[in-house]
Amino acid sequence: MTISLILAALFAYLCVRPILSYLYDAKGLRRYPNVNFLAGFTSLAYVWERRRSFRTRHLYLHHQRHPILRLGPNTLSFADPGAIKDIYGHGTPCRKDDIYTLTVGSHAHILNVLDRDDHARKRRMLSHAFATRNLEHWEFKISDKINKLIAQLDRRCTLPLSVGKQVRASDLTVNFRLWSNLFTIDALADIALSEQLGMLDSGTDTIQVDGRDGNLSYIDSLRGGNNVLSHFVGATEWFSLFKTVSGFFSPRSRKQWEHGRNFGRIASALADKRLQRHDRGDRLSDLFACLIEDKAGEARCLDRGEIEAETNLLLDAGSDTTAIALTHALYHLLKNPHCLAKLRAEVNEALSGDTIASYAKVKHLPYLKACLEESLRLLPPVSRGLERRTPPEGMQILGQMIPGDVAVSVPTYIVHRDPSLFPDPNVYRPERWLENGEQAKQMREAFIPFSSGARGCIGRNITMMEQQIFIATLVHRYNFALPSPDWTLDWQEAFLLWPSQMPLKIWSIDD
């Protein structure tokens, strides 16, 4: 009898309740088309979509027919660029969605903190360091890593590819996806923590953490945890169950959860090492210094947990997003040789005989910036819609009254393909960013690879600085070839849009 009651209660909770809720439609969301058959009934619709390797591209196809889609019982996606200002703009009544609380450890960091005042405090603490004028003082750290990268690429140079010849497998000596990531990890560790990880020197991403046997893989630790977390995080009421079950029954998931814990150990160990240097009297110039002292040199006295949380974010998003952007930037240039030739002419004129691009010489190059922005438009590292929640009283979005406490978002990948703003939206055409007029202004307003408003990415200046120096140096010094003219990247979308490995043939421009 007891088992029968339990089964009946479970059936009612899992099946009857969602159906009754859908039929009752308290918030009037049934009028919006569903992205899949589960969306009107349960947040498991998210898990269903997450099984796709590039789910936002699939959502894009749905949005071709419907400007507003229902992603879950209480979740809406907007494809119209006009919704950007409503949802993300300065002064929006929306707040971060509760989904972010599932990514919080012992302390929140600037990305997942929900409280507005606490976010404002964190942003004030870090914004001075992220200003371009301050980042330029750390250009030497980027140049140092570029120099180490060049040393490795020079060793892997092959003979030039003759016209009409095919690339041989033995000539694919560079996995650009890996080397771009080693560069960003090393550069970010130096800029953030004054730490020399030496990954470019060794050609591997391994790191030793005190108290652990053997080395850890930085990339596996970072992506493993984020990958498994991204499978369930959108199914909020099911998240705890899935986390427990996946770790218990699936060896692969259990390994990925362990990877995530390992990345936390890496961040904690590096934060501890940096704090010890400070305690010994080292006054280092890096981002971490802003967590210890304010501009006047007064101690901030932050909790150790908050320092580790912010360090974790710097080492996570600060390295991976830029590596993704660099991979996509070179990929688009190689797939569009006329754009590469035009960029190379601009860069060669600016750099003359320089080996490494200086930021002063490349920061104002219009076509270089246009190439990078066009790549970010087509394949933004954060392609999905960043989740926000409407205020309890509801709000107007695109002139429609959306009820309170509804999760809303605008997918970056999708608004970047609005044909009314970006003609031939799937074509890589950097020249569009060099045009003027009202159309260009509207394009800029819809260009959100770093999000928008008060919650916009605080690291946008540093990533653009790295990209400009990195790409300018490489196109000035090397030629590259993909495995074949029709070779294409694959992607896996977790929280970020991870490109697959990108094998390249490389040879010196002077050969």
Automatic annotation (TrEMBL):
Recorded GO MF terms: heme binding; iron ion binding; monooxygenase activity; oxidoreductase activity, acting on paired donors, with incorporation or reduction of molecular oxygen
Database matches in Pfam families: p450
Known cofactor(s): heme
UniProt keyword annotations, A-Z: Heme, Iron, Metal-binding, Monooxygenase, Oxidoreductase
Binding site for heme: 457
Record-stated family: Belongs to the cytochrome P450 family.
PANTHER family with a match to the protein in the record: CYTOCHROME P450 (PTHR24305), P450, PUTATIVE (EUROFUNG)-RELATED (PTHR24305:SF172)
Protein name from the UniProt record: Benzoate 4-monooxygenase cytochrome P450
